[in-house]
Write a structure and sequence with these properties.
Blueprint lengths: L1 E6 L2 E3 L5 E9 L4 E9 L6 E7 L5 E3 L7 E5 L5 E6 L8 E10 L5 E5 L3 E5 L2
Parallel strand pairs: 2-11
Antiparallel strand pairs: 1-3, 3-8, 4-5, 4-9, 5-6, 7-8, 9-10, 9-11
Amino acid sequence: QVQLVESGGGLVQPGGSLRLSCAASGATSRCESLTWFREAPGKERELVAKTTTSGTNTVYSDSVKGRFIISRGNGENTVFLQMNSLTPEDAAVYICKVSCATDWGAIVDYWGPGTQVTVSS
């Protein structure tokens, strides 16, 4: 089992920045990728950014490319999302997911509860 807790959300003015954190605990040694999603009212869940646990491969949605940066902490159990030049369209609940291998060859996804980001003047 893996437990995830996001933090760092809050209210920010347009053009501002926030740094989200996702802390993982439990059986994280076989986790292979870490992904940030977001959910806004009336919209489908959107993949925002994804990185492998090695940090060598990253993917961003077109809507955040050039403004957001996903990175790993010094240990393997924390992933950050640096969000710059925020607009009201970025307001959403941001959710962290890790994908981990099992002994029987399957991949299991674990989700955090999410952290609210509000962008408003």
